[in-house]
Amino acid sequence: MFHAFPNIMTDQDQDSSARIPLSLHSVSSLKASLHQRGFRLTTQRQTILHIFQTLPQGNHLSAEDLHDRLRQQGERISLSTVYRTLHLMAQMGLLRELELAEGHKHYELNLPSPHHHLVCIQCNQTIEFANDQIFQVSYKQAQAHGYHMLDCQLTLHVICPEAMHQGWHTTLPRGWICDRAAQKSYIDQED
C-alpha cells in the first residue's frame, strides 16, 4: 500500500526491497501531475527530470550544480528557473530535498528507498546508508502523536577517516579535502 508520498510505507506494506520502478517518474506521469496542479510540461522540466533519472545513485545536485550541467548541455535556462523547478518537483514528491553539510540544499530523485547520509564536515563527502530501524522508529513516533510522516532523513555529521588520520582540527590546512572527495569532485566535473 503506497501513500501520497511514494517514499513512505506502512507496517502493512511489503518489505523494503519492493521498490517503485523508475517509470513512476516517467514523462507522462510528470505531465499528468503538472497538469493536475495547473502547470505544463516544458522541455526544461523534462530535461531536469531526465538528469535526475540518470544521476548515479548516491549523487546529489544543488541548484547550482544542476544549472551548470544544464548549461554544459547547451540549455538556456536561468538559475532562478532551476530553483523554481526544483522547488516544484520537491513539492510534487518527485525529488527529495536534502540539507547536507555545505550550507545549501541538494536534491535527488525521490524513490521509496529510505536512506540516510553520513556527511564529513571537513571535505563534504557524503555516504548513503540504509537502516530500516530508523525509519520504523520514526514512523511509530509520528503515529503515536497522531502525525502522518512524509519523509524520514537522518544526516550524521562526521569526520572522515582520512581527515582524522591527517590530524583533523589541529593540523589540516584550510580548505583541505580528502583524496576520495577530491576524486569524486573530479569525476563530477567530467560529467
Name the poorly predicted regions.
Answer: 1-23, 185-191
Number of beta strands = 5
| Backbone structural class | alpha+beta
Shape label: flat
Percent of residues in beta strands? Answer: 5-15%
CATH homology group of the largest domain: Winged helix-like DNA-binding domain superfamily/Winged helix DNA-binding domain
Task: Please tell me about this protein's structure.
By secondary structure, the chain is of the alpha+beta class. The chain folds into 2 domains: 21-111, Winged helix-like DNA-binding domain superfamily/Winged helix DNA-binding domain (Arc Repressor Mutant, subunit A), CATH 1.10.10.10; 113-191, Dna Ligase, domain 1 (2-Layer Sandwich). It has 7 helices and 5 strands; from the N terminus they run ααααββββαβαα. The protein has a 3-stranded mixed β-sheet with strand order 4-3-5, with no helix packed on it. A two-stranded antiparallel sheet has the order 1-2. β1 (95-99) and β2 form a beta hairpin. The chain is flat. Residues 1-23 and 185-191 have low confidence and may be disordered.
Describe how the helices and strands are arranged:
Elements: H1 27-36, H2 43-54, H3 63-72, H4 79-91, E1 95-99, E2 105-109, E3 116-120, E4 126-129, H5 132-144, E5 155-158, H6 161-165, H7 179-190
Parallel strand pairs: 3-5
Antiparallel strand pairs: 1-2, 3-4
Helix pairs in contact: 3-4
Short description:
The protein has 191 residues and is of the alpha+beta class. The protein contains 7 helices and 5 strands, in the order ααααββββαβαα. It has helices spanning 27-36, 43-54, 63-72, 79-91, 132-144, 161-165, 179-190, and strands spanning 95-99, 105-109, 116-120, 126-129, 155-158.
